[in-house]
Every structure is written in structure tokens, then in C-alpha cells.
Amino acid sequence: MKYHHEKIEAKWQQYWAQNQTFAASNNSDKPKYYVLDMFPYPSGAGLHVGHPLGYIASDIVARFKRHKGFNVLHPQGYDSFGLPAEQYAIQTGQHPEKTTRENIARYREQLDKIGFSFDWSREVRTSNPEYYKHTQWIFIQLFNSWYNLATDKAEDISELIAIFEKAGNATIHAVCDEDTEIFFPSDWNSYSDEKKQEILLKYRLTYLAETEVNWCPALGTVLANDEIVNGVSERGGHPVIRKKMTQWSMRISAYAERLLQGLETIDWSESIKESQRNWIGKSVGASVDFRLKNGEGTISVFTTRPDTIFGVTFMTLAPEHELVAQITTPEQKEAVEAYIEATAKRSERERMADVKTISGVFTGAYAEHPFTHDPIPVWIGDYVLAGYGTGAVMAVPCGDERDYAFANFFKGQNGMPEIINIFNQDISQGAFAAKEGFELVNSDFLNGLGYKEATQKIIAELERIHQGKGKTNYRLRDAVFSRQRYWGEPFPVYYVNGLPQMIDAQYLPVRLPEVEKYLPTEDGQPPLGNATEWAWSTIENKVVSNDAIDNETVFPLELNTMPGWAGSSWYWMRYMDAHNDAEFASADALKYWENVDLYIGGSEHATGHLLYSRFWNKFLKDKGYAPTEEPFKKLINQGMILGMSAFVYRSEDSKKLYSKGLISGVNVHPIHVDLVVINDITNELDIEAFKKHPLYADYKDAEFILENGKYIVGREVEKMSKSKYNVVNPDDICNDYGADTLRLYEMFLGPLEQAKPWNTAGITGVSGFLKKLWRLYFDDNGLVVTNEEPSADMYKTLHKTIKKVTEDIENFSFNTSVSQFMICVNELASMKCNHRKILEPLAVLISPYAPHIAEELWEQLGCQGSISTVAFPVYEEKYLVESEKEYPVSFNGKMRFTIKLPLDLTVAQIQEIVLADERTIKQLDGRTPNKVIIVPGKVINLVG
């Protein structure tokens, strides 16, 4: 009976689907286990073999936990809103919904083919109105909330209004905009409704504000920092500039400290935690107010070194700082404006990373030192960021390398004084930036003090003269939540006199309207500006024609859409109760599943999705919905499977193509070759197929310089990418070798968290292993399994494997499990083992890794139902306890034979048996040994 993977896999995939084998229950007496993959964006390219790596690992864990008696939730869905689908719609004229639906169908087909134990009954798609109505609902909850620092949690905006009515805002401890004015209850109660709404926007957790954003003209949208690489858009490589726009923002900064502290409670890699710590960027210091010399206001700065205040030589503002236009003198206006224009073309990330370029312009304005009252020149420089701190720094060149370089670069120019040294240290070669090993000099009442004492004293003095205070600052900025594109969640917002109003939750979802064009309008509005029915009737409570707008009962709707991370910031909760129409998940479902026990996905989401998800989870916890503070208990970042690219080598004039072995000393250019025209095992190019390939039409008349009659391509390991033509389709592997082979091979490649190259040539070994496993159970005539009692060695091999595989799964060391399976099958084959007591648990043991063959073996053994919930074998120590030892017997240090003896023998008994052995007698040839050295359990050596 032969092993036919294609029939077996199709059979069991159909069985699982028909029987809902992996559907999780929200009511179970079993302990729960929630294992989740970062859900995919369904691109038109489909999956390549790198994509399933994390899914296979999570599936092994999910299946293992079912075997161990857990009620396992292992769902899957699609992050189906996003820019790629919209760009494709712009290029082809197809609706993004259509292409997304088609792409999802392709993904589903591929995922099913690999045999994942997903609970597909809970599938979510972020672009479905039934899903995004809950995203819209969460947005409304954020809008109707403020952050109370006294209770350290989000609370309802109605509670804030009640405080304003009774006490104003002078004593309230809340997160709000820096420019929020102080008012008293009499003021509040006299304000118009519009004025009250404007004030509340300064406190709401999602709010409208004019913000510096990353604007990509080519894509017509705002990009998040993590969507920009080297100053251009990650998608398409388009230029990105900084500009001010009125945008929706999320007040994630309110959660900075909780996001920081929460990292100590979760089992994530230290590298991911450190990325988030750096992104949050906590620093302790002081805010200092420098009054402008012209009396036109104050420059506020945040500094972690208030002890160095007497070393301030100049000040630097971010080019985007709101005061720049106000304070710049007429003489400096032209230079300042030119500098601002040039800076707008550089992203914040680029400016932060560039520590070598020094640039700036003097504004012509001066501030006043709070203690000496000396004039301090005010510059602008792009090393200062508008969004970090206050967008201004007090420059102390003697104590900061970047300030030192800036001061020396502009030394002697108008507006750049001599550096003041306030340390009893030499600064002739560079700044002294240490916080210890110095005493302050030239520092008035701080002279002779060190860092700690001076910091405490200067903060007290700043507070006494009302020009500063102690403060903790965070680099984390509020997240821009608007995108000027079509294919995203519509905001549940309409505008009355320019102020946002929330649509009542009972009328959600606000569905995405149909538009003819997906590009921004001619007057620069987002694509929703093309919609003809995009107004809200407060009488009918529905979307109506724009022609009906009268700004009395019918009002314009928000034209922006939500960013790609909106739907992914809470999706793990929807899986808990995916068919609940009334709420995003019931309280019972949330209480039962709590949070994700194991989350597997890419490390590239460290400061995007993973940070936003934690923020939304904490907010929903504050509001009484989420049962836990953190969404993901354990996180594993799978490594990347790299592609093996292929190259041909063309001459300068493109008339010759040299085989790999002949390029030495020849000036050639490598060209990526589509893997379909090479033999992936021998690396030989199919020359005729290459000539006919549409990508290589330019080379159909080229001369091929062969080695030994063949053209051998070059190979190189690179990231898998369509542009490098090194993508391997998992469908091909499943068709040729089987899904179980693919699953085992991907795990066998190396540790889950490391990058590893794909090599199709290596897959044949894994395929052969499965055939060898099959032959333990079957011969050509059918099942050969017997009920005979296995030998001790058979039990030992089985239990050694049970122990190893159990430990490996619990430690996520899947590659070594595959190695152990191969050792086990080889040992059992050599023992001619066909014993049910060994082979039945072996089928269960391999089931998480190779589920299709395991199911078939289980059925052929006469067992009922799916193998997926059968109890996992438990290793017993007694089978691994060695009762015998095979001793090497040496004569004068040279091993001559081995002898197997019980381990419980005494030294005297061992010596008696060895001396009586015929081989010893023959070796001694009548001689008596001078000494017999015996180390029980180790060696026997006869000397003399």
C-alpha cells in the first residue's frame, strides 16, 4: 500500500471542513488556549513559501494544545483595508472591494491546501461593514473619553464636563493640549456650545488638530513614520514632505507610562521591548520658559539637564515651530523661509538618523536667560523636531555633542556667541556630556555642585520665579489617525459649523460610499470628495445626497478615512465572538478568552501595530470592556525565509551571456532570472525557455558561453520578492511533495526566529522521511501492524522521542523535533518495529507537524474520529532508565571488544565476568594482568 499524499491530504482537509473539527467553543470546561497569527494583508501575489512559516509554527502549538486537553482558539482572517488595493484600483479601474475579495479567495485556497487547523467559522475581514462598524464604535468611545491622571485611566467625557461646570479646569489633573487655557466654572457656564466643544477637543482621546504630517503627494495621503523608509514611501518609493494639515489624532501619549510599564509583565523578546522603550522615549528633567526679548511671548523647552542652564549659548527651534514666523526679523526672513522649504522635504526619521549634516539659520531674534537676563540668540535647525518635546532646545555646547558641532560650524557668524564652559573639565576637543565626575563653574548659585544636587536646586529656583518646573517627557507622540484615501474605514463623523459630531452608535455602520475615481479631487480633497451621496441627515439618520446639505438638518460627512492600523488594533477580540451583531464581543466571551496566549508575527510591527494594539486594549480595559491590561501574553517573531535567487551574467554590450564558472576576469553584469527557466537542483539554465520568456526578449539573439556544454546560473540568498523572481509557490510544493512535507521542511530549516534560506533541493529528504514513516505501518499488501509486545529498545526510542518533542514544542524549538522524528523512524525501521503500542502513539506524536498523514494512519489503525483531540503521549522515565551498559574492554589502553553488562553489578562481579570471557582469555594468552581498572558504567581496562 503506497503513500499517496495528494489523496490523503484532500480527504482530510474535506473532513475537517465538513466536521468543523477545529471550531472552538465559548462554553467549555476545558482550560482555554488562544494562539493567534498576525493576520495577512491579501495581496494579489498570493502566498510564497516564506509566508506560512509562522502559521505552521502556531498550528503546531494549537494542535499540541488540543492534544493536551485545551479548548483552543486558533482563528484566521484578513487585514483587508489598505493602500495597495487602492493603488491597484487607480491603475486598473477595478473596485478595491472586488480585487480584495478575489485576493482573499486565492489566499484561502492556499491556506487550506497547507492544512492549518484554523477555526474558519470566526473569520474576520476588516473591510466588511459588519466588522468596521465596531471599529467606528471604538472611535466614538475614544472621542467621548478623556484621560484622568488622578485615576490613571480613561473616563467618560460627561464626567469632565461635570467637573468644568463645578470647578473649571484649574485644578484638574488631565492629559490635554499644551495650549489649553485656564478657566473657572463661571467662564465655562457662560461659553457658547461651540466654545465648549472646542475646549473639549483639547481633552478628548481622539481629536482634531493641525498637525505636522508626512505627506506623500504621489500617493495623495499622509503616511505614518513606519511607512517611510529613507525619506521615501515604503510603497512605491515616492518622495515624502512635512506639512501641516488638520487631522484626526489619537492621544496615545496619555498611555505612555502604562505602555512602558506593561512591557515588564509580558513574555516578549528583549529586542522588541527595547524598540518600544526607545519609541516611547521616557526622559526626566524640567521644562524651562525663556522669555523673548521683544516681549512677544515665551519659548518653552524641555531638558534632561537643567543643571546646565548657565551653559546656554543659543537656542534652536524646529523649522516648523509656530513661533518661527512670528519672531524672524525682516533681515533674516528670506534665509529662514528658504531653509524651511528645504527641510520640509526631509522626513523626521531621516532628520533623526542624520547626525553628520549640520545646517541651520539664525532668526535674528533673542530670548532672555531666566537668571542672568543675558540675550540668547534663537536659531532654527532640522536636528530639532517639532513633535518631540516642545520643538525647541536650549543649546549647551559645552555639554552636548550635537550643540557643540552646531556652535563650531557657525562659529564667528552673526548670532553665534562663544561657547560658555560651565564644567571644571577640558572641552577643547569636544563636549563633556557625562553626568558625573565634574563640578559646575561659571554657574552662579550652582557653582561647586554636581548633577543631582544642581538639578534639584535649579528646578526649585525655576519654580520659585515661575519660569519652569520639574517634568517627565516622552518621545511618543499622538498618532495621526487620518488618511486621504478611499479604501479605509469611514469616520462616523459629520460637521456642524466646522465642529465634529459623532453619529449615534445605533446607526452604524457608516458604509463606504461608491465613487467614480479613487484619486483625490481636483481641488485637493480626499477621494471621498468624489462621492455624490456623502452627507448625514440628522432627521432620517442616514447618508443622503450632498445636494441636500443645508447645514441645519443635513451636514457634510468626514472625507478622510481611518488608517490601515485601525482595524488591526482590536481584531483579536472580535475572534472571541465573531458573529455578535450587537457588540464587538460579549462580556462572557471576553471574560472566557481574556487575551492571546501566543502571538506569532513579524518584528517589523514593533512600533506600529504592536504599540497601537496595546494602546487600544488598555483603553478598552479602562472602559470596562477588555478584561486584561495587555492583549498578547507571549510574542514570537518568526524569522524570514530567504529566497535563492538565480543570475545570468551579461557582457557590457549585452551580446554574450557567461555561465557562472566563466565570469572570472570578465566584466559582466548579473541579471535576476525567473526560477521557472532553471533546474532548481542542478542550477542549469533552460536556454530555449529563457529565450522565449517575455522578460528576456532582449537576449534571444545573445551568445551563450557554456561550461562543459551547459549554462550554469549563479545563485545568491536574498529576501523573497517578485522583483527578484526568487519566489517559490507553496502550491507547487504541496502538489509535488505534499503539505505535510512542506510543513516539516519549513520547520526543519532552522530555529523559528532566525532567517534561513530556502533550498528546494533539500525537500526530497523530508519527503523520503514521510515515506519511510508510512512503511512502518504498511507493506505492499496493506497494514502490517501487530499487537505483539514491543522490545525495551522500541519503548526507549518512542519515549525518548515523546520527551524530546514535548519539550521542543513547549520551547518552540520545532526544527529539532523534526530531526528527532527522523532518528526515531530510522531506529524503529532498523528494529523492524510494527508494534501497535509504539506506532499508535507515534502517529499522535507527529500529528501537530504532519496532520494529514497522522489522520490517515490513525484511521487505518482502526481508531475512530479525528486524531486531533486524542491525548498526547506522555513520556515515562522508566523506559529511559538504562539497565545495561555496553562497556569497551581495553588492553593496555587499546579497545579490543565490547561487552554488555547489567549496570547494578559490583566491580568484583564485573571483573569476574570479564576475566572469564573467551575473548579476554584469548587476548591475554596465558598472562595474568598486573591491574584491572574498572569504572562502573564507563570503562574496563586490563593493564600488563
Could you walk me through the main structural features you see in this protein, from its secondary elements to its overall organization?
The chain has 28 helices and 36 strands. The chain is of the alpha+beta class and 944 residues long. It folds into 6 domains: 20-126 and 570-637, 3-Layer(aba) Sandwich (Rossmann fold), CATH 3.40.50.620; 127-205, no CATH class; 282-474, Isoleucyl-tRNA Synthetase, domain 2 (Alpha-Beta Complex), CATH 3.90.740; 641-719, no CATH class; 759-879, Isoleucyl-tRNA Synthetase, Domain 1; 884-943, Roll (Ubiquitin-like (UB roll)). The strands form 10 sheets. Strands 10, 11, 12, 13, 14, 15 and 16 form a 7-stranded mixed sheet that branches. A hairpin with a 3-residue loop joins strand 35 and strand 36 (939-943). Residues 11-144, 713-745 form the Aminoacyl-tRNA synthetase class Ia domain. One of its GO terms (molecular function) is ATP binding. InterPro entries: aa-tRNA-synth_I_CS, aa-tRNA-synth_Ia, Leu-tRNA-ligase, Leu_tRNA-synth_edit, M/V/L/I-tRNA-synth_anticd-bd, Rossmann-like_a/b/a_fold, tRNAsynth_Ia_anticodon-bd, Val/Leu/Ile-tRNA-synth_edit. Pfam families: Anticodon_1 (PF08264), tRNA-synt_1 (PF00133), tRNA-synt_1_2 (PF13603).
List the topology elements.
Elements: H1 5-19, E1 32-37, H2 52-67, E2 71-73, H3 83-92, H4 96-114, H5 129-143, E3 145-148, E4 153-156, H6 157-167, H7 185-190, H8 193-200, E5 206-216, E6 221-223, E7 228-229, E8 232-233, E9 241-250, H9 256-262, H10 270-280, E10 282-292, E11 298-303, E12 314-317, H11 324-327, H12 333-343, H13 348-353, E13 361-368, E14 375-380, E15 392-395, H14 401-409, H15 451-464, E16 468-474, E17 479-480, E18 493-496, E19 499-502, E20 535-537, E21 542-544, E22 554-556, H16 571-574, H17 587-593, E23 596-601, H18 609-622, E24 632-637, E25 641-651, E26 656-658, E27 668-673, H19 687-692, E28 703-705, E29 714-719, H20 730-736, H21 739-748, E30 756-757, H22 763-777, E31 778-779, E32 782-783, H23 792-810, H24 814-830, H25 836-846, H26 851-860, E33 884-891, E34 894-902, H27 907-916, H28 918-924, E35 931-935, E36 939-943
Parallel strand pairs: 1-2, 1-23, 12-14, 23-24, 25-30, 26-28, 33-36
Antiparallel strand pairs: 3-4, 5-6, 5-9, 7-8, 9-17, 10-11, 10-13, 10-16, 12-15, 13-14, 18-19, 20-21, 20-22, 25-26, 25-27, 25-29, 31-32, 33-34, 35-36
